Amino acid sequence: MRLRTNLNSRASLPASAPAVYIALLLLLTAVLLLSPIVVVAQPPATPTETQVEAAFLFKFGSFVTWPNPAPNNTFAICVLGRDPFGPALDSIVKGESLDGVPFSVRHIGEPSEASACRIVFVSSSEQERVRPLLTELAKLPVLTVADMPHFNDRGGMVQFVLENGRVRFEVNLTSAEKSGLTLSSQLLKVASAVKRDGGRD
Amino acid sequence: MEVEIDAMLNNYSISTKITWMNVVVTGVALIVASLSFLFYDQANARGALIDSLSTQAQILASNSVSALDFNDPQSARITLSALAASKDIEGAGLLTPDGHLFAEYWRSPNVRVNVLPTLRPDRQQTEIFIGNHLTVIRNIDFGGRRLGAIYIRSNLDMLEARRNHFLRILGLVLLACMLAALIVSAMFRRAVAGPIEALSETARTVSRERNYAIRAAPTLAHDELATLITAFNEMLSQIQVRDAALNSARSELEQRVQERTKQLVAANRDLESFSYSVSHDLRGPLEIVNGMSYIINQQYGRELSSGLKDCLDRIEDAAKRMNQLIDDMLNLARVTKSEMHRERVDLSAMVREIADELRRREPQRYVEFTIAQGIVVSADSHLLHVAMDNLIGNAWKYSSKQSQSRIEFGVRPNEHGNVYFIRDNGAGFDPRGAQRLFQPFQRLHPISEFPGTGVGLATVQRIMQKHGGHIWAEGAVNRGATFSFTLPEIS
Asked: Do A190 and B66 touch (CB under 8 A)?
């Protein structure tokens, strides 16, 4: 009799309950499997101007060809003068390499120290002596970059500019070619301006 | 299915069957081959489309590297818009590494798709077929860095157009092939069905005309058909030979039968004329014996001793019997020799007449006759009278010992026609001797009991046979006898 009650109470449960659970489970699995992989990207904190410039410095390496192999087997990004990037540049290049050559960041005070560099960022602190600096640097196969106005007019190669709040850059192709550098057309394509002034000093 | 096709083709000639076979086989083979090729071609075209989109994606990707790297969507859009050159490509887009849309291009606003495709992280490229569209999505890597992904969405109009074009061509080719199959099968029909039809026509002619000299026309080929025709012709030759042999054997046989018949007729005639002349010639001396013994009896009867008188009586008696015998034998011979004159004979009336005659001859006997009425047959009335005289006379004679004699004449039908019979309730006979009854000079009863020569029933049988009839007897000792006979129906 008791057994019968047991059976009855069991039977009184909705018979389809396990089936419903299994169906739900299957549905969930299907949704997980079939749904596009939803990348819930954190809206990144809008990078600052210097952070973007630091990233660009790092990325230029891919679009420039140097006439010589990297000195000391390191791709040195040198900051001439006061460093505006802080730890940003270091953290970007940390662990990165280009064609097997690891990146490094160096701080230099004079153009004479730039022989081991691939890219020289001329800090705004050196604005006063830009012309002699560039004359010196032009003798070396280094890409000169700055975010000061008229940098390219004075013989610089890449000059950051701000357009509608976005960091962009202008290119002086003549200067680069004089130093034996080749800039990829890809780079020129995204440059906001390309300067090519032929015979000027 | 097979049975249906069989039933469908059963009513058609071989040449129609061959034509249909060629056309259907060609069509089926072509359709199967074409459909296989169509599937192969479509798969190929799909592969080629994927390759093409993949290549374009790679080119666009390498041209978009700097735009992605330096965050220049405008430049990327210009790069993507180069796809306008390809009319099947509906749109494309660049995605940042975290899956956001970086730049996009659409041929027109109506084909724009808002849902971004996704690429599984472990794959470099994925192709997605949805409905009438193919989307190829591909990662963009540069200098060891993942810059993002590019996708290109194309419609499959090209595949569809290619398929439709193929099907149109297939239709035309199918039509042309069917036509070619018809023409080719017409040629084969001449080669295959032609001889078969000729053969069957020959067989029909042979069967209809029974002319075994006809031969089927041989073919130049060396195939089974040629073998069949050769075998058929050989068969005809054999039949012809056998037919000729059969014919000659038959005519030889006929000739032999005719000769034998002639010989038999001659021998029979000799035998009959011999027995006739013997009977006739015997009669002369017998007349003298009879006449002389009569004279002796008349003139010297009283003077003779009783012993001699008895001798003389016995001589007279024997001479009378011998005279009767000769009469019967002459009768028998005459029956054989005489010509038949068939006419309608009222058998019932004939039996009545004979019965009256017998009653008149022996009025002291009382015999109960039962005679079936209206029996008419086609026979020689004289011969039939001789036969009926014998049969009824026998019945009269052999029933004489009965206190109440009964003789019945009647008819009963059997499977061959009417059977006439004469039945008596007389002495009957031993059934074992039934066959001997109809042989001349054979008697089943001693003369002392029932007088007779033993020639009567032989004569009756000869008469029935002469009419093309048949006679037989049934009976048992002291239980009466039944003589049945048949006569051909009146034609």
From this structure: yes
